[in-house]
Amino acid sequence: MKKKILTCIFAAAVLHTQQSQAEPPNSYMPVVDKESFEDVKKRLSKQKPKAEERFRDLLKERYDLADRAISGISMTRGKKIQEGVRVKLAKNTSWDQLAAMTPEEIRQKNMWPAGFYPLPHELHQEGGMLFPQFHIDKIREQDKRDLARFDISYQLPDHFLPEFPPAIFLTTRPDLGDVSQGQVVTIANYYALFNGILNPKQLDGLRLLVTPTMQQQFNATSDRRSNEPSLGVTCFDCHVNGHTNAATHLVGDIRPQEHRRRIDTPTLRGVNIQRLFGSQRALKTIEDFSEFEQRAAYFDGDPVIATKKGVNILERGSEVHNMSEFQAILNFPPAPKLNVFGRLDPSKATEAELRGEEIFHSKAQCATCHVPPYYTDNTMHDLKLDRFYQPRNILGRVASAEGPIKTFPLRGLKESAPYLHDGRLLTIADTVEFFNLVLGTQLTETEKSDLVAFLLTL
What we know:
The protein is mainly alpha-helical. Helix content is 32%, strand content 5%. The strands form four sheets. A two-stranded antiparallel ribbon has the order 1-2.
């Protein structure tokens, strides 16, 4: 009997040890709920303040978050643009000192600026769509949908984000200028705003872009992160007015979770001239992208979970096609200082802007990838950032080799902060310092200032 008891104790200990060990890698997400919705909500709501505090501390450690706007320059509808380098350097370090070092020296001395590491999701172990509060408030008012989450909220300060609501420019009707009428386009007003401007296919495509569909965190199942069962999200909840509100998510096509990358929602302006879609996936058409998002990316790239939560299967020949027809006429904002070749008109540009353009096309090497008139080469490049730092875990996000990313167009750049594919760079000046190190271009302070002046004209 004693032997039997000891055997049972040993077996239980082995089982406990096995269960305590890390679970083996798995491409799929859990399908069966192990907790009630109320228990999950109670547990995650309790953790929310601490999780938000950790992320705010990370932002404060990395960046100068003060609201300091550039004088005399604004976005289309008047929002100010933030000036200056906001990434913080280690004590007794200067940008010139860093620029004089090799990548190997920066790596060995652990001097890569904290703000140049990948930016994690506010709750990286969960991920999911996360919207700025100003967008949540407007959608509650207009659509009676609630895009708030009980487990986390968006933390980047509003003054670093695009203006809201953004302007809408159409390639087909440039004579109209901004056709948004200062409104956020939703299912409640799209028809009144665009009937008589769009053709029937484009109008139907816009309808689909503002129609809610189920998503991982916003759905009708008990496995959600909204207080009430939800109709879901729309394409324009992230790409508001065909632009962006800097909403974030995690890419759906990477495993495990700690290697998934934060997404800074890119603008849809100018997709008609682009040939690659998705920051790293290199999807070949806007139709591919629209279908991929609805079928998989909305559900962390897991078709099993998508089936559970209510995936909306779009018909390629009509629905996806109509969506792409509308997206293809979204235009960049006007750039009055550029000529038909996308270069500065000397009669309209300042001396600093003209010097910046020359630097862009020569010493800074920007034009190697960002080719006029739209300032993209429609391909992908690997910046090999892992040359500069040892891999590390940042709030659940492993910073390591990242692979190639697409060359985003720079037209309308001043209206789409923050920058890089995950939003780690808060200002254009940050972006110039980042690439000065990555490309080893050794720009002077005056050259950097002139380059920023030029980029603000695009």
